[in-house]
């Protein structure tokens, strides 16, 4: 009899579990540089049943999202500028609004990108190694999320500038910290679930059971599960960055669209404030579209979905 | 029991003990699996199967202490659920694993993978592995996992709950393919799963994990608890019952709908147990709900004791008096059992309150001070203590919720129970205990029972008659004995084979409701299919007294 | 059944951390409200000359304006959002699924706009407190509506409603006995989402000098003024209290939501 299951009566001794490595060369095969796009394109040479590949070039999804966003992003911006040319009291209002939009975009976009990326990494790392420096930073960011709204940090930056610090790096930092907090807050529990013993940890357990090395497991099986909710929460981060940048521009007297709107509102001029508000709405939609594009680029599974439409 | 062999077996354990806290999951088990052997380990939920496989693979789950010796050769562990990274193309993930173990590049890994897929019987047209796993059907994902294991070729393959959640015919086909591969390539294969999941079918040896021990499995009850009494006269008549759901309007604004149930005729006699057999997409659950008019079907009639149920259940037109009396009477006689009993209880009320509400509404003739007594009786009859009435639904286990659901169903003293997979969430002993209770209640009260289930043998052992459903149509209907021994439709035969642990003679997966082939819905999977099958949906014809089959070629052998 | 009492390893119990956070948030907010209410006792009559007063006492005094306005606007915004969701549900049963979807998609789209920017605009252009409260409430309502509708549609599909219909319960009774008791908590949870949002929106507007009038006092206004003047001593107390209040409001919203999702 080949298989025997006996309830032996031998004394149980604590011994290490014998474990042998799988046969064959252990060679790590890392196929994906960063996102899925590049390798996706490469794979199509080998797969015969491959549909027309929409991601052969990296920025394609970003461009498509931007084209989709024309009616909600570019039209409000154009309408805001046109409106200000028509109704605003100053002669060069349209030009200054255009310049202001550029300033606002320059303030928000880099800080959002850097903050979200760093926050995601720190939050994910906090789940992997909670006691390391990076992990502590991630936990700190995740815990401090709601304590640090962008406008309050903008006020802090303004205070520091009054006291004598330089404006530009402080401004960017003030806007990127809330984005990092938001990203860490979303990434940390998702990563914990991905590494945990619940049903969401199935992919990681499977990858480990299949003998993949820990680095590959973390990078390809756990991290994407932490990135997904961050990408889903980008819209809230964009809104927070918008509010923060308006506060920052106004307090630091930067020539942004938000400052234009607040200045007009202060003197009670609807003709000056409303075009700027409409244009800022368009800018928000533009940033959202960029976020969706980046999400599609990182995560090829999303290319056919229609996010944020509910239903 | 010869433990000393010339060549060590790929898997050997010596007094392996697993502890979860102070609870013993496995007590000093010695286990030995040779090359090319297939071992199935069965056990209910939480019995320690996952911990055992984890300990064998050298990665016990968190919190489980391992003592004793394990010796295992190069192994792969396919973890429970069969989940992969949900968003990466499947081919990339597979190539990564194959490449990692064999040192192959992408091209070589995919070529080996293609061989593995051939062995798992995945046709080339179905290999859409550029998609991420979450966009692939589950059966394809499992086939791909098995093919990956075959491509890597480990000495030992450990599979936790393989293909759980798939239809029995699909699951058994895949498991047999996997077992064939293991025997042919000399791989020691250990399958762990719940006893009702059919892992025992393709295995050479079966061990049941019970109370910390690995023991031979207890054979399941094969026949009814007590001899079935012959049924009386027909009381429930369903004629041409059909169900279709509205879809979004088409491109030209025309109304569209998806028909899932096509003109079912059915009679239920008093004291009769009728089992509706079918797998995913067979619309057996839709039929069960249609008979209860929850919601009413979109076509046909349901008549209970001469009263048209659909007329009573449809909301009355403006100005008419709603027919509450008729509907209440029918609801009192026809009670449902739900597939997820825990969800069928309102979380904001105790079980007792909800039972009292049912009683108050369906049996206004019972005085208010007698209700508590009735509830206690019903709970005890359903196998619970009367104290269960004081508990909140969230505090009930799955098994207790199922028994409480049964108590609620018998509270109004119905004449018919319509049960849709009532034990779907239960496993092993819990499942058997619940089904035994259900049958005991049925026998005591001489209830008619309609039982919808995908488990062929389990459903038929307690039934008078069975109806096999496929894609919203009846394909075979006969008395239970005939269906258990000699079904004629290829689908019934495949379900019977799967329930006995054999190899179902069906290829591929069931088509989705949106992509049904023209003609016979089974023709792409069927061994008897010929060209004509694509031209007409087979009609139900009587082949013997009380035995109906809907197949063009049931009496012709398969073409070679 | 004792053998199977142990839950399977693969499904551990969820940690009830959200609820504890919610409790601590509620405690912090209650303490802040109490301290703000007791602040006039500490300020010994110097309430009119805020900048001369002890900065902590002045910040606590400001808390009265901020917190009471936030409470008012949150109640208003929560009610608006819940009403919006109920309207969508009603449209779904009376008119059709299309109308329901349109109403909900409108809320989801609006929740993606920078509505908080409307508050300083309203502060500058309208100038009345009750109008400001209405606009602040409107900025929070779409998000509340989207969440409340999601909860509503989950509940409408619940199996226990079918079970109640199987017991021949009339629709009126299903509504009274099952739907309304089960709707209370999720709708309340959705409503509390408005609290951090309106508090943040009002502080943002006041920070720019376009929020609550100076007579009412507001943390945001004090922070903004201190930032413009470059006065760290006057800056710290209101900024800290504002951050604390925002954290507490978020924790309450999270905690209530976690409490609802618990089985």
Automatic annotation (TrEMBL), chain B:
Keywords in UniProt for this one?
ATP-binding, Cell inner membrane, Cell membrane, Membrane, Nucleotide-binding, Translocase, Transport
**Which PANTHER family does this UniProt record tie to the protein?**
ATPASE AAA-TYPE CORE DOMAIN-CONTAINING PROTEIN (PTHR43297:SF14), OLIGOPEPTIDE TRANSPORT ATP-BINDING PROTEIN APPD (PTHR43297)
Question: What is the protein named?
Answer: ATP-binding cassette domain-containing protein
Q: Which organism encodes this protein?
A: Azospirillum endophyticum
The GO terms this record gives for MF are: ATP binding
SMART domains with a match to the protein in the record: AAA (SM00382)
Q: How does it sit in the membrane?
A: Peripheral membrane protein
Record-linked PROSITE patterns: ABC_TRANSPORTER_2
Spell out the Pfam families in the cross-references.
ABC_tran (PF00005), oligo_HPY (PF08352)
- Ranges for the ABC transporter domain? 11-236, 236-496
Q: Which InterPro entries does the entry link to?
A: AAA+_ATPase (IPR003593), ABC_Ni/Peptide_Import (IPR050388), ABC_transporter-like_ATP-bd (IPR003439), Oligopep_ABC_C (IPR013563), P-loop_NTPase (IPR027417)
Q: Which SUPFAM superfamilies match?
A: P-loop containing nucleoside triphosphate hydrolases
Q: What subcellular locations does the record give?
A: Cell inner membrane
By sequence similarity, the record places it as follows: Belongs to the ABC transporter superfamily.
TrEMBL record, chain C:
Show the PROSITE patterns listed in the entry: ABC_TM1
Q: Which CDD domains match?
A: TM_PBP2
Q: Where in the cell is it found?
A: Cell membrane
Gene3D superfamilies associated with the record: MetI-like
List residues traversing the bilayer. Answer: 67-91, 103-123, 239-260
Q: Which domain of life is it from?
A: Bacteria
Q: Give membrane topology per the record.
A: Multi-pass membrane protein
SUPFAM superfamilies this protein is in?
MetI-like (SSF161098)
Q: Which UniProt keywords apply?
A: Cell membrane, Membrane, Peptide transport, Protein transport, Transmembrane, Transmembrane helix, Transport
Please state every residue range assigned to the domain named ABC transmembrane type-1: 63-253
| Protein family membership | Belongs to the binding-protein-dependent transport system permease family.
- What is the protein name given in its UniProt record? ABC transporter permease subunit
């Amino acid at each position: 009899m080949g298989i025997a299951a006996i309830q032996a009566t031998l004394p149980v001794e604590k011994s290490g579990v014998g474990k042998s490595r799988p046969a064959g060369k252990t060679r790590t095969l890392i196929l994906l540089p960063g996102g899925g796009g590049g390798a996706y394109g490469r794979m199509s040479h080998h797969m015969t049943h491959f549909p027309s590949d929409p991601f052969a070039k990296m920025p394609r999804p970003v461009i498509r999202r931007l084209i989709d966003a024309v009616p909600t992003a570019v039209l409000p911006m154009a309408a805001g500028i046109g409106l200000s040319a028509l109704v605003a009291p100053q002669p060069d209002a349209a030009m200054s609004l255009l310049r202001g939009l550029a300033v606002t975009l320059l303030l928000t976009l880099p800080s959002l990108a850097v903050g979200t990326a760093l926050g995601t990494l720190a939050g994910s790392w906090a789940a992997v190694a909670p006691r390391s420096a990076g992990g502590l930073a991630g936990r700190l960011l995740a815990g401090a999320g709601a304590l640090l709204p962008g406008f309050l940090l903008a006020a802090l930056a303004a205070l520091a500038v009054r006291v004598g610090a330089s404006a530009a790096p402080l401004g960017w930092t003030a806007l990127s910290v809330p984005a990092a907090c938001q990203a860490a807050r979303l990434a940390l529990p998702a990563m914990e679930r991905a590494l945990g013993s619940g049903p969401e940890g199935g992919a990681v357990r499977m990858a480990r059971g299949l003998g993949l090395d820990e680095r590959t497991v973390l990078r390809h099986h756990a991290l994407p599960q932490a990135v997904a909710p961050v990408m889903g929460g980008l819209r809230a981060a964009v809104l927070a960055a918008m509010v923060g940048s308006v506060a920052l521009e106004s307090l630091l007297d930067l020539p942004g669209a938000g400052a234009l709107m607040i200045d007009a509102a202060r003197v009670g001029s609807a003709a000056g404030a409303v075009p700027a508000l409409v244009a800022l709405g368009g800018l928000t939609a533009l940033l959202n579209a960029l976020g969706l594009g980046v999400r599609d680029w990182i995560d090829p599974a999303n290319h056919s979905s229609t996010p944020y439409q509910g239903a | 029991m010869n433990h000393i062999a010339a060549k060590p077996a790929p898997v050997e354990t010596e007094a392996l003990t697993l502890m979860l806290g102070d609870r013993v999951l496995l007590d000093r088990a010695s286990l030995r699996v040779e090359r090319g052997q297939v071992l199935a380990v069965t056990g209910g939920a939480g019995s320690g199967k996952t911990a055992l496989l984890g300990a064998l693979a050298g990665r016990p789950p968190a919190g489980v202490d391992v003592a004793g010796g394990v010796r295992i050769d190069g192994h792969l562990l396919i973890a429970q659920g069969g989940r992969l990274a949900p968003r990466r193309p499947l081919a990339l993930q597979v190539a990564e694993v194959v490449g990692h173990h064999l040192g192959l590049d992408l091209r070589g890994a995919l070529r080996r993978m293609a061989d593995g897929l051939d062995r798992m019987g995945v046709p080339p047209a179905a290999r859409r592995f550029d998609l991420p796993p979450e966009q692939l059907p589950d059966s394809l994902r499992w086939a791909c996992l098995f093919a990956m294991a075959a491509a890597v070729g480990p000495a030992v393959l450990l599979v936790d709950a393989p293909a759980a959640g798939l239809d029995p015919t699909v699951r058994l086909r895949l498991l047999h393919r996997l077992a064939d591969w293991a025997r042919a390539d000399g791989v020691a294969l250990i399958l762990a799963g719940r006893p009702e999941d059919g892992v025992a079918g393709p295995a050479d040896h079966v061990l049941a994990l019970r109370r910390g021990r690995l023991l031979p499995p207890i054979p399941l009850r094969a026949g009814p608890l007590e001899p079935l009494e012959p049924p009386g006269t027909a009381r429930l008549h369903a004629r041409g019952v059909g169900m279709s759901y509205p879809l979004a309007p088409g491109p030209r604004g025309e109304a569209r709908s998806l028909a899932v149930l096509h003109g079912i005729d059915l009679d239920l006699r008093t004291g009769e147990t009728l089992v509706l057999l079918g797998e995913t997409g067979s619309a057996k659950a839709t039929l069960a709900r249609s008979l209860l008019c929850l919601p009413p079907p979109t076509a046909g009639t349901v008549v209970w004791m001469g009263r048209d149920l659909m007329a009573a259940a449809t909301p009355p037109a403006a100005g008419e008096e709603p027919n509450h009396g008729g509907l209440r009477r029918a609801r009192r006689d026809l009670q449902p059992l739900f597939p997820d009993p825990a969800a069928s209880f309102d979380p904001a009320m105790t079980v007792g309150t909800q039972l009292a509400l049912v009683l108050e509404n369906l049996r206004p003739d019972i005085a208010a001070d007698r209700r508590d007594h009735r509830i206690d009786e019903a709970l005890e009859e359903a196998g619970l203590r009367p104290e269960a009435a004081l508990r909140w639904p969230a505090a009930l286990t799955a098994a207790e919720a199922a028994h409480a659901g049964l108590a609620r169903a018998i509270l109004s003293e119905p004449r018919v129970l319509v049960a849709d997979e009532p034990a779907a969430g239960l496993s092993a002993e819990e499942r058997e205990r619940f089904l035994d209770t259900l049958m005991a209640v049925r026998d005591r009260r001489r209830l008619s029972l309609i039982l919808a289930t995908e488990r062929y043998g389990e459903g038929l052992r307690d039934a008078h008659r069975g109806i096999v459903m496929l894609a919203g149509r009846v394909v075979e209907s006969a008395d239970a004995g005939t269906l258990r021994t000699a079904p004629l439709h290829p689908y019934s035969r495949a379900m019977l084979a799967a329930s006995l642990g054999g190899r179902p003679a069906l290829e591929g997966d069931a088509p989705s409701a949106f992509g049904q082939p023209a003609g016979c819905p089974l023709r792409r999977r069927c061994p008897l299919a010929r060209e004509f099958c694509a031209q007409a949906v087979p009609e139900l014809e009587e082949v013997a007294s009380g035995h109906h089959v809907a197949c063009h070629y049931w009496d012709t052998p398969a073409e070679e | 059944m004792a053998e199977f009492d142990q839950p399977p390893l693969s499904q551990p119990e969820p940690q009830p951390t959200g609820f504890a956070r919610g409790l601590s948030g509620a405690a912090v907010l209650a303490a802040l409200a109490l301290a703000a209410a007791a602040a006039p006792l500490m300020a010994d009559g110097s309430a009119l000359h805020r900048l001369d007063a002890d900065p902590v006492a002045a910040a606590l005094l400001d808390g009265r304006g901020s917190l009471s306005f936030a409470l008012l606007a949150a109640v208003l915004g929560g009610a608006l959002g819940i009403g919006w969701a109920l309207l969508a549900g009603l449209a779904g049963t009376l008119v059709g699924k299309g109308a329901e979807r349109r109403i909900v998609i409108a809320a989801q789209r609006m929740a993606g706009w920078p509505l908080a920017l409307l508050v300083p605009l309203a502060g500058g252009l309208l100038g009345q407190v009750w109008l400001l409260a209405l606009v602040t409430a409107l900025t929070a309502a779409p998000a509340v509506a989207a969440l409340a509708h999601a909860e509503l549609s989950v509940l409408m599909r619940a199996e226990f409603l079918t079970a109640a219909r199987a017991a021949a319960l009339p629709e009126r009774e299903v509504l009274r006995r099952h739907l309304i008791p089960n709707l209370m908590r999720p709708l309340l949870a959705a409503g509390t989402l408005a609290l951090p949002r309106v508090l943040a929106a009002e502080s943002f507007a006041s920070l720019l000098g376009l929020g609550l009038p100076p007579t009412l006092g507001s943390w945001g206004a004090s922070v903004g003024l201190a930032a413009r003047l470059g006065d760290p001593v006057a800056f710290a107390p209101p900024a800290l209290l504002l951050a604390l209040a925002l954290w507490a409001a978020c924790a309450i919203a999270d905690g209530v939501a976690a409490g609802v999702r618990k089985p």
